[in-house]
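Q: Here's a chain of 237 amino acids. Please give me its 3D structure as tokens.
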Amino acid sequence: MKKEEINLQEFNVTLPSPVTDARLLKNVFVHTSYLNEPDGAGLESNERLEFLGDAVLSLIISKLLFEKFPLLDEGALTQMRARLVNKRTLAGIAAELEMSRFLLLGRGEAGSGGEENPTILAGTFEALVAAVYFDAGIEQCAAFIDGIFSALIEGAESEPGHFDYKPALQELSQKTFKSPPVYRQTMESGPPHKRIFEVEVAINGQVIGKGTASRKKDAEQEAAKEALEKLKAIGKQ
């Protein structure tokens, strides 16, 4: 078994709906640039899966919003869906799932930071949605999406979703300071079954946000949220 296949199995077992078709799962991570590499010969890029995943995701999110908010009209539902299904949010989800670790990129794309490219990450997550749909059917795929998006849908009426904060801070930091935010775990406490993580985020060495949560990834999101609020407050002065 190739190293990349072992890695994919490590990723697969973390999913609430593991993909049983190994070839289909690998296809999720094949960026079109990889087809120009020697090991990419005979492979298919994830673009077709991305196309289908986009449609499946939009359908399922629309249904979830339709059922959860029976009093909202079409315009409000459309706006809520746009806040949930967009490049920033999907790239954030892909980052949370650590999908960048398994991307198969061409050398040029990899050298230019393709693993952190929001467009590539968002498309890879959409390809994963399509793979789950093909592998397990629409009902299991809907449960998969519901589990991932439930926290975002809760706040979709009025505020950014949980997964928006880190990508939003990344974008603002690169644009304003020409430097990415850096996250650092400052403390881990509590018993093994009830851990608490504290994380801080800094830009150019200056700490601008802190977060605490039962998962390190959630603590990073909280730190990013606080940082965004501080930066926006400074911008209004």
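Q: Can you summarize the key feature?
A: The domain at 3-158 is CATH 1.10.1520.10 (Ribonuclease iii, N-terminal Endonuclease Domain; Chain A).
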